[in-house]
Design goal:
single chain; alpha/beta; two-stranded parallel sheet; 18 strands; globular
């Protein structure tokens, strides 16, 4: 696989703070957490307001709206924002229409050289899990052929969602990209870094010139939420002193979000006149015997590939007693005490399937702005976490920072997947 340089040219976010990267950034800098009562659940949730994800206008979009679940609305909002920020409108780049190596007759980039990778849940929020138990019972005794049974019993939108995902099809339609359309499901994707790493492979293999990576973490079905809570406890409070890395943290702080990044082969991006927001130097996910081993190995891998140390660390840091400890034990020795560290999850929560994509977008902003926001709800850093320079109390100026390390861990006591990325300041 070649060492093709990759630019990040567009980013989009939808969080509890609202629609737009700037909304999330403002919430982090002001220390304004977005947690509510969780709609009757025993844990608070940093929930997305669906009104911040309006459906696109136009007859084409209105005709297919009936197929769209909440995840599609949210993901499409983030994807559209990333495309707009990258200068890409209605399936074609705005402004300079200089084409790629295989552009069409109008000089526009070849749509088959663009693709999509989505990070989505494998639960009922995106697929068929909500109706599979009933189908399993029916299949035991129902006399209808399986094709007829599915046609009669499965809502139409479920067919759309499962080929390969509802979100992937809408994102491909919004972007106009006609290349590979792939999905990375569930927590094995390390908060969306699995999807981003796959996108990197698609570009560096020469298959594509650009990939739109979109992740969505919609409301968890109750059964899934309870299972996650039993596997590794969710936090019951979201107030000062209960944030990530705090001495009194008491469980993962749950959030909802959608995030999108458009990454492009640097040569192809420059050919169409796109200015990079940042450069993606390395991204990888790994499985190992345990999450500490996976985290240590994947951080070593991306730092080696990037060929430079990190100047700031955007940590997974979710409020879990065990997970925060494992992350710090694995990462801190590889960075040194002088590298400032933060986390978004004390403000916008842990959006499980796309949490690391959220952090990657925010890390781009930190490098561009030369500032690092404080860890939300962190008051007393836990001394057991070692010599980590957490940003506490307010934003910190980091004008010389040129590279950010983003880390992600899978949820659950037995989770053994971790991801990491190195993002370099754009030139």
């Amino acid at each position: 696989m070649s060492d093709i340089d990759i630019d990040i040219t567009g980013t989009g976010l939808l969080t509890s703070a609202g629609a737009g990267v700037h909304r999330a950034w403002e919430a982090l800098e002001s220390g304004t957490p977005g947690f509510g009562d969780g709609a009757g659940l025993p844990w608070p949730v940093a929930a997305v307001d669906p009104r911040h994800a309006p459906w696109p206008d136009g007859a084409r979009w209105q005709n297919i709206r009936k197929y769209a679940g909440p995840g599609a609305h949210w993901g499409l909002a983030a994807a559209s924002a990333a495309l707009a920020r990258a200068g890409w409108e209605d399936g074609a780049p705005a402004g300079d229409q200089a084409g790629d190596q295989a552009g069409d007759q109008a000089g526009r980039p070849d749509p088959t050289r663009g693709g999509t990778v989505v990070a989505v849940s494998s639960n009922g929020s995106d697929e068929l899990a909500d109706i599979l138990p009933r189908l399993a019972v029916l299949a035991q005794h129902d006399e209808r052929p399986i094709a007829e049974l599915l046609y009669d019993e499965v809502p139409d939108y479920a067919y759309i969602r499962s080929i390969p995902s509802q979100l992937g099809q809408f994102v491909a339609l919004a972007s106009g990209f006609e290349g590979s359309n792939l999905s990375v499901y569930g927590e094995t994707g390390a908060g969306g870094l699995g999807a981003l790493a796959l996108a990197v492979r698609l570009i560096r293999s020469g298959e594509l010139d650009r990939v739109l990576v979109v992740g969505v973490s919609p409301p968890l079905p109750l059964t899934t939420a309870v299972a996650f809570d039993r596997e590794e406890r969710f936090g019951r409070e979201a107030g000062p002193g209960r944030g990530p890395f705090d001495l009194d943290r008491a469980g993962t702080l749950v959030g909802q979000a959608a995030a999108a990044l458009l990454i492009e082969n640097t040569a192809a991006a420059r050919a169409r006149g796109a200015a990079p927001l940042a450069r993606l130097a390395a991204c990888e996910t790994l499985c190992a015997a345990d999450r500490a081993s996976a985290t240590a190995a994947v951080v070593d891998e991306v730092l080696a590939r990037a060929g430079r140390p990190a100047d700031l660390w955007w940590a997974h840091g979710c409020g879990s007693v065990a997970m925060d400890l494992a992350e710090c034990e694995a990462v801190a020795p590889r960075l040194g005490a002088a590298v400032p560290a933060t986390s978004s999850k004390g403000t916008v929560g842990n959006a499980l399937e796309c949490s690391a994509l959220v952090d990657a977008v925010l890390a781009v902003e930190a490098l561009r702005r030369g500032r690092l926001p404080a860890v939300g709800l962190l008051e007393k850093p836990d001394p057991a976490l070692g010599a980590v320079d957490f940003v506490v109390g307010g934003p910190r100026e980091v004008p010389g920072a040129a590279a950010a390390l983003v880390t992600a861990l899978g949820h659950g006591r037995d989770a053994a997947t971790a991801g990491a990325a190195v993002i370099v300041k754009g030139s």
